[in-house]
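Consider this record:
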Amino acid sequence: MYRGMNMDLKSEKNVTRSDIARAAGVSVGTVSNVLNNTAVVKEDLRQKVLKTVKELHYVQNYTAKSLASKNNHHIGVAVYEMSNPYHVEVVRGIEEYATQNGYIVSIFMLDNNMDKKLDAVCQRKLSGLVNFMTNEYPATFLDILRKQGTLLVNFGTEQGIRAYVDYADAIKEYCRTLYTLGHRDIGYLYYGDRPRFLADNRGRAFYEARKELGLTENDDYILFGNNSSENSEVLGYESVKRLMRAHPEVTALFCTNDMAAVGAMRGLREMGLRVPEDVSVIGCDDIWLAEFFSPSLSSISHDKREMGRRIAKAIIDSIREKTISEDVIWFQAKAVMRDSLGKARNLK
């Protein structure tokens, strides 16, 4: 049993905000402002209220709070693979900020039984839903969320808030570095289809850099993974084998994320190819494990935890202000070069 508070609910009446106000010698409005973070309260009064809350073992009634405000104080996050540390880091940032502001966070694994899970999402009547899926959602599902007043994040350019990571400069910096190291035949393993790759700023930057630098412009070097039931590492492992069997001349490889890069490195090793001596490998997301792989993984980085905090802040601020406070949350990615990057094998 959790022992942080008195759990004998039958022996004590429920503590109300009025009780806290009387004990702390402040108004009920001041108590509400402290608990809801809805207005600036002098620090000495804020600490006095929080001290009284703790002494009286006050627990907020979120059901009553939600009914009064028509806001469930509940943020959902839709993901397709929790095995990817990238999602864990972003969700951690969302949860940190949300909890500080009286919200709870739920994760929805939308990797199977989609109809039932989408129904479950609708039944929660979420305050906000953050999307990290790559597949399309039914229009009826999105209509229900909009009618419920759920704030949508990452559901397209015309749907609420969008978290945007600009990878273009990092992709081009890597391409210039690879060119300097003698690479001309560069592949790409992408989690998605061709239209999505062309819409992704990573894909556009890759095409532009190939042309600008005079790299081999062979689209057969780009492999797409459309099987959302497979984890990224499996797609990386299987795709790299298909690519290298068909095009053994490839000497460097971009991967859609770091987990796909891990799978690709294992696939290369099983084919008798060394990283980076035979093939250089570059991931994306710079998960915390990247520097501990052997060889350490070159990647493209941005502050994932801060991204999560800013997403949560944008949702909560928009709800409070009753208008979207920040429609695009922008992050600049950077290249992080490690041991998986090396000279082209024909120069060794």
Summary: Residues 1-12, 62-69 have pLDDT under 50 and may be disordered. DSSP finds 13 helices and twelve strands in the chain. The domain at 9-60 is CATH 1.10.260.40 (434 Repressor (Amino-terminal Domain)). The first strand starts at residue 74 and ends at 79.
